[in-house]
Amino acid sequence: MVIQTREIKSFFFSQYFSDGLRMSLGILLPSLVLLQFNKFDLGIALSLGALCICVIDNPGPVSHKRNGMAVGNICLFIVAVTTGFARLNVFTLGLEVTAFSFLFSMFTVYGNRAASVGTASLLIMIFMIDKDIKPNEVLAYSAEILAGGVWYMLFSLVFFGIRPYRAAQQALGENIADIVKFLRIKADFYLPETDIDQNYHKLVSQQIQVSQHQDAVRELLFKSRVMVRESTNASRILVLTFVDLVDMFEQIMATHYDYAQIRERFKRTNILPEIARILQQMANELENIGYAVLSNTRYKQLENFNPALEQLKLKIDAIASDHETSNLVLKKILINLRDLNEEIENIFNYYNSASSKILIEKSSGVEHSRFVSHQDYEPHVFFDNFSLDSAAFKHALRVSLVCLVGFIAAKTLSLGHHSYWVLLTIIVILKPGYSLSKQRNYQRLTGTLIGGIIGVLILVFIPNADVQFAFMIVFMVGTYSFTRLNYVVSVIFMTPYVLILFKFLGIGHLNIVEERVVDTVIGSTIAFIASYLIFPTWEFEQVKESLAEVIYANVNYLVKIAKSITGKTVTLTEYKLARKDVYVQSANLSAAFERMTSEPKSKQRNIKDIHKFVVLNHILSSYIATVASEITIKKMHKATPETLKLVKKSINVLNESNKKLGGERIEFTGEKAGPEEEFPATVTDNLLKEQLGFINKISNDIAKVTEDVLK
Exposed (0-12), middle (13-18) or buried (19+): which is 601, by Cβ within 10 Å? Predict the structure, then answer.
């Protein structure tokens, strides 16, 4: 019950809910205010403009929001005027639908925010199709829509201006929650009853979530001048927390070992469940800190893990083993746990006023601007994609053709006066990849049916207009709150919200439910068939590129290690950039594999081998993270000829695999280390050699799997 209460509270403190509340207020206020002055029609027009522009109001730096919404308003006005005149003739309207569907779908080449500008433009086109306005009223009505869009833009910017750090704080708190889940999955590896293969699948899926949230936080922190300048304690706390959070994620990644082997080796000692228990307790503490960050409250007491870690050390020392390396593995796990504990304490201290002095003295030592990508908005990017080799071009062609078919179907098959619902369904469902379209299709249909039932029940059994209006507000906020979090829930809220709204507008009653369901089914059917038949994009056609990119990132990471142990300077920024690239490319590969699993069986080429590759890549990244944290950050080792040879072997093997996949090589020709006697072996050096041996073994396993994938 406590956990459920915490989850509910976390949602209301989250970025999702604040986005939903902001969007709902921005859309509703013009209509509610102007209703008081008997200007409800004007209010509806303003709200329609606001509704379209709120699509662009995605998480990100305020400057990006401002620029995106400004361009969106210009497009909104142009499209509204064009559609207002084009709708006077069914053929010119069909031509416009086809042309604009292609043009605005091509905006995906400029990234997600530009794609949302395209979506907003298509939305106003769809809403204007059945709008009954005279030619001499088109410009005035389009200006009203533009005014609504400008109103929402100003409202949103003021909203963020009041609390400039809140969005970053929320994203950071949600990222901590993602890492907590990742840590709990890692802890399960130490339990004998956990299925290792299934747990890997869960781990890989969760890694995608962590990576996506980390990218969102990077955007908010490092593309905002207020944050990067670290001009206030609040901004410095956020930046330092995120830097430590990424380091913590590496520590969690670095706790990877051959779990089947250590389970067998230590099954009689009961030491592994003890490790799992401590990891779960650390996850609890991190979860408490994350909730404090999200809710903007102070977490006053942190559990002291030092006694538990000391007890664990005594148990590890007491374990008798036939092989020297047996205890070394446990000692390494203990080191990881101590490092993890230190990271948790650091984050706790940032939010503890008694430790505020740390903020003045500590610097992250990282060039933040290098950790975020910068979108190229030059015209050549658009025209360079005019080829069937471009996934964006094929998607735009597909959307264009399908919208034309949907337009014809809406005019011939639709039940009533809201035929735009067919096109609206197509625009929402049709995504660049088949698997995403299939998922969105299922969610849209399911949500519409369930939401339709809820809407009918409210309209039939709750006739009181005030109560219905209250329900509409709740459904509206729910719609926009769950759009990014859970789309099917968003649609479940959206359908009764629309039905109740139309009841207040006097447009139909219960018959509109049938109309909406039928139009949704028509649009879903057209979109589903089209995603399979018209310029389909299958993951197996692109997976080689993803495999090559992740190998390249791992080789680059290994080269940083090789340079470091040969005495060359590797800056903290270089190391962290290489680490970030590995995590991003690994998450991209994992996401591609998950999409492939939802495609038709006939399109799942070599899926078992690709799954092996995904798991081996995760293991490789974890081993490299383990070595890199010691060599590059802690400066614990220098090269012996044997260790350097192992690193070079791994680099060469991975380079050869990448070459076969069509990727680039990264050459490393480091000088040989001095005579081995100059580097006396220590326990730590033996463990390093063992870890590099694991990296070499996994690299060879990846090479074999790559051969199988290419068959």
Answer: exposed
- Indicate the angle between helix axes 196-222 and 166-188, nearest 10 degrees: 160
What is the rounded distance in angstroms from the CA atom of residue 156 to the CA atom of residue 23?
8
CA distance 510 to 456: 7
pLDDT per position as a tens digit, 443-455: 989 999 999 999 9
> Distance between CA 238 and CA 243 in Å, rounded?
9
Smallest Cα–Cα separation from 590: which of 208, 185, 212? 208
Q: Find out whether 449 and 481 touch, Cβ atoms under 8 Å.
A: no
Kindly report, residue by residue over 461-513, the tens digit of the pLDDT. Answer: 998 989 999 999 999 999 999 998 899 999 999 999 988 888 887 765 667 77
Decide: 442 and 487 in contact? Cβ < 8 Å: no
**Prediction pTM value:** 0.86
**Per-state percent for the chain, helix, strand, coil, to nearest 5:** 80, 0, 20
CA distances from 513 to 129, 415, 419 (A): 20, 11, 13
Q: How far apart are CA 527 and CA 304, in angstroms?
A: 56
Residue 629 is given by DSSP the state: I
- Residue 602, CA distances (Å) to 394, 460, 540, 543, 641 in order: 21, 47, 11, 16, 49
CA dist., res. 606 & res. 1, Å (int): 44
Among candidate residues 592, 421, 577, 383, the one with its CA nearest the CA of residue 499:
421
pLDDT < 70 positions in the chain: 1-4, 224-232, 320-326, 353-373, 414-419, 507-510, 632-639, 670-687
d(CA 224, CA 230): 10
φ, ψ dihedrals at 335, nearest 5°: -60, -45
58 with 113: CB under 8 angstroms? yes
Domain with CATH 1.20.58 in the chain: 168-364
583 vs 577: CA distance, rounded Å? 10
CATH class, 168-364 region: mainly alpha
Cβ pair 552, 663 in contact under 8 A: yes
- φ, ψ for residue 463, nearest 5 deg: -75, -15
Contact 427, 395 (CB under 8 A): no
- 506: left (phi > 0), else alpha (psi -120 to 50), else beta? left
